[in-house]
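Subject: Predicted fold for Glycerate kinase, 375 residues

User T.R. writes:
Posting the sequence so we have a shared reference for the thread.
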Amino acid sequence: MTDARPVRVLIAADKFKGSLTAVEVAERLGAGLRRAAPGLVVESVPVADGGDGTVDAAVAAGFERRLVEVTGPLGEPVTAAYALRDGTAVVEMAEASGLRHLPPGVFAPLTATTRGTGELLRAVLDAGARSVVLGVGGSATNDGGAGMLVALGARLLDDRGEPVGPGGAALAGLASADLSGLDPKLAATEVVLASDVDNPLLGPKGAAAVYGPQKGATQEDVATLDAALARYAEVLGAGAAAESPGAGAAGGVGFGALVGLGASFRPGVQVLLDMLGFAEALERADLVITGEGSLDEQTLHGKAPAGVAAAARARDVDVVAVCGRLTLSGPALGAAGIRRAYALTDLEPDPARCIAEAGPLLERLAGDIARDLAA
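User M.O. replies:
I've generated the structure tokens; pasting them so everyone works from the same file.
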């Protein structure tokens, strides 16, 4: 990298959960790079993988942020954002039905509802969107997307002809389902299910077993939810869809999207990179800086840094990563296409201080990257 022309650095990092958004990560890295090496040309494309921060990444890329009041996971009203540009909408399930809307220490694995996600989708359809990216990470729910479908016009009834209650457990009493009342605008709308997980709906690798405990489900709750979701799939006559990759995403909302919305499944980071103009920015880059709060084994399975690194490696562009905490070995990083990782814990061993002072520490890491680049 000793060309006469300036070295061009592309920052394409995800959020540092609990401390910095992807936009803030890019701002801090950019400031540190420019201070250490004023001759660098720095460009940023904040990225996400479909979970928390997906709408923010879209807004940073030029989408318009819009707000709407919807039903939260516990049934209370919450304000949720979506992003819209030229008929394409980005919907982040966590905005409506996410863990962020639960009080500290409170979980509701059996009763939390995705109704608000359906209301958010209805809002984007009413706003004229005919292409929708539905990012489904960070959910508080395990209802198979049943609440979402009801909000969009489906009827899910018990054996008395009454609507089943909210949440996944109530689906055990499902007797009939009528999807004919779903919003007719869906028929003319392309819906992409953007997720970083490809689990099926049911069984030991399914929505309840794998992700239920993260949402407060006990082993008894997991069994209850898995049986209720199996009943749901049976009544909908969609057993094959229950086995589809992504059906188990976000407590089974993937299944609801595949069956009820006619969605297609794609890895979230690929969808977001395409939508945010990453490929065009990559063509101008000599070095890519990616990262997220924790670079660990999970990173290698569909998280944003792995997607960024794979795309950069395909174009033979060097990649380094920044993170708060690093547990991946050098060979594992190399296999993922990441030449080197810089961790906040290299500068500050106290994790609490790393979280509290992530911004200034990232600027210092950026200075280290700039110096290594010049070496």
